[in-house]
Amino acid sequence: MASLLSIDVFNSGYKPIPGGPGWDDSTPATWPATTSALISGDRDAVLVDALLTTSEGERLAAWVQNTGKRPRAIFVTHGHGDHFFGAGPVLDAFPDAQLIACDRQVVDEARRQTTAEVMAIWNSWFAGRFSQSPAVPALTNSQKFDLEGHPHVFRTIGGADGVLATIVHVPDLRAICSGDNAYNNIHMWLRNSTPESREAWLASLDAVAALKPSTIITGHRDPDAPDDNATRVLDQSRRYIDDFDQTVARSSTPLEVIDVMLANYPAYGNRYTLFAAAVTQFPS
User: Fold this and answer.
1) How much is the pLDDT for 69?
2) Predicted structure pTM score
3) Model pLDDT for residues 96-116, shown as the tens digit of each residue
4) What angle is formed at CA 141 by the lines to CA 136 and CA 145, rounded to 5 degrees?
């Protein structure tokens, strides 16, 4: 008889970072609040994503230990460092767990994140706060994972916030752990995006919606977001991308884009994400 399944979510909260040229330092710049999701049966579990800093990894490991569950795998949804650099403390606490990804492009991007050039960028934000030799996910040999009689499906979805997006689909819960494919009440990472990449991201959201989930755990979620309702999360993610795309087309400066988007989304977290997106649309 299959066990009962549950999903619990760890939220890192916002982290201060240097704002850089053009940022108004009267408002602290932050990194978006990031999640890890623990999908559990009676004994075993799958952890989805593993945060960024060493202290986050330590807090995450302690949180998982307190659940009494044993993660058999840590699944990395995509290759951005803020979703796997923090895996070390969790792997230390659970040495039998495997750090995995379901698509070669995710593994390749994760490896690229550990190169000197990209690590220098991460260090400009978080120097001394994360591992300089982070573990990199290995490519899993199966797109399906059985957790105490419940199937989990690893799916490649398509383009999202600059890299390939994959998700964990848990049909028995009608739930999806979306990584950065969708956002929940946080300004979306549209830095260096183009009309074509934004269109591809919208197609990825449609692919997730076609699975008809009722719950979506997003990779970036405001701690005060009202819920994880899939319809609301998908609708707001689509609308945000559409609004950004149309606002950029009508604007001539980053400030115009920022003003319009803040008016449309006054309660969204992490304004620095919007700033970083807007300034890349008008290269000097």
Assistant:
1) 97
2) 0.96
3) 999 999 999 999 999 999 999
4) 95
Q: What pLDDT does 26 receive?
A: 87
Q: How far is CA 55 from CA 77, 89, 172, in A?
A: 21, 9, 33
| pLDDT above 60: residue 246 | yes
2-12 as b/e: b if 16+ CB within 10 A: eeebebeebbb
Give the confidence band of 25 by pLDDT, cuts at 50, 70, 90. confident
User: Are 264 and 187 spatial neighbours (Cβ–Cβ below 8 Å)?
Assistant: no
Query: Residue 254: CB partners within 8 Å, gap ≥ 6?
Result: 22, 275, 278, 279, 281, 282
Q: How far apart are CA 159 and CA 157, in angstroms?
A: 7
Asked whether 33 and 221 are in contact (CB, 8 A), the reply is: yes
